[in-house]
Amino acid sequence: MSGRVFAVASGKGGVGKTTTAVNVAAVMAEADRSVVLVDADLGMANVDHVVACDESATATLHDVLADDAALTDATAAAPAGFDVIVGGTTITDFGRADPSALPDVAATLRDRYDCVIVDTGGGLSHDTTVPLGLADETVLVSTRQTAALANTAKTRALVERVGGHVAGAVVTRVTDDAGGADAGHGDAAAATLQTDILGLIPEDSRVADSERAGTPLVSLAPESPAAQAYRELAYTLLDEPLPVSFRDGDASGDAASGLMAASAPSGAPTDDGSGAGAATGDDQTRDASILWRLTGGLLGSNGKR
Ligand SMILES: Nc1ncnc2c1ncn2[C@@H]1O[C@H](COP(=O)(O)OP(=O)(O)O)[C@@H](O)[C@H]1O
Ligand SMILES: [Mg+2]
């Protein structure tokens, strides 16, 4: 099997990348693909805040990237029929994980799944750049805010610089405050980002409900406006027409009811793993290495030298 790898990326955090990654993964699973979502926002892993996974993972992606665990140990099942490579959440995890091991992780997953969705962190640091180079397609995510678009334009340039390919952009949290639905929202974004707009995701209060429930929006509220937009986006990425049962807002088809039947998880993990505790020598070395990475080598030290 040689699955397709999609990176979900933006210049800024908080614009809807994880929400997009989770819902695209859920729709692709609904479309009978085997799907894995990789929580590769190494600094702020939070897929499990958006979708509650089962308890089957005994390790995290960070352990895998530190060569301390096998990929299967970091694999959990999400309620909508896809797997998740869960991320570690502590600062120590961030220091241990080596982003340059990500291409090997992606190659292994490509052999095991039809679709590999890689959720990334914002910004231009090494750990956010690696996924852009290894993915077949990068999906840019931005809100309509000028600053978010400007930052995401940088991400677009970066994708090209690392030899990746931009599939297009998704504009999230769109409201029709500027004179009616679709009132040029896509046009302005397309002009700034210089790429095709793959979808406009409306601002939708059900997104917050889905986070509380730990269930992807497309499963929890398949007929909500954002769920419909995410479904269209995922089929666009699969390069397939939307199934008839989902056209014209009719989400009452079998696929939707099947997903609705997926069991709700028993509750999202609550340990935020903030890593509080006594600092050891090891921690200090790791902190120095984190600083080194975050500042591009200006501060801290690269433990490898
Ligand atoms: N279409 C939407 N409508 C309403 N709220 C949204 C929508 N998309 C995302 N959000 C909210 O925006 C916040 C950031 O989303 P998230 O997907 O975590 O962004 P990122 O991964 O880019 O940091 C979350 O609180 C999420 O609930
Ligand atoms: Mg995120």
From TrEMBL:
Species in which this protein is naturally found: Halobacterium salinarum
Pfam families on file: ParA
Domain of life of the source: Archaea
GO cellular component: cytoplasmic side of plasma membrane; cytosol
Source taxonomy: Archaea, Methanobacteriati, Methanobacteriota, Stenosarchaea group, Halobacteria
Low complexity biased stretches: 267-282
Name under which the protein is recorded: Septum site-determining protein MinD
GO molecular function, one term: ATP binding
Residue ranges of the region described as Disordered: 256-287
Single Gene Ontology BP annotation: negative regulation of cell division
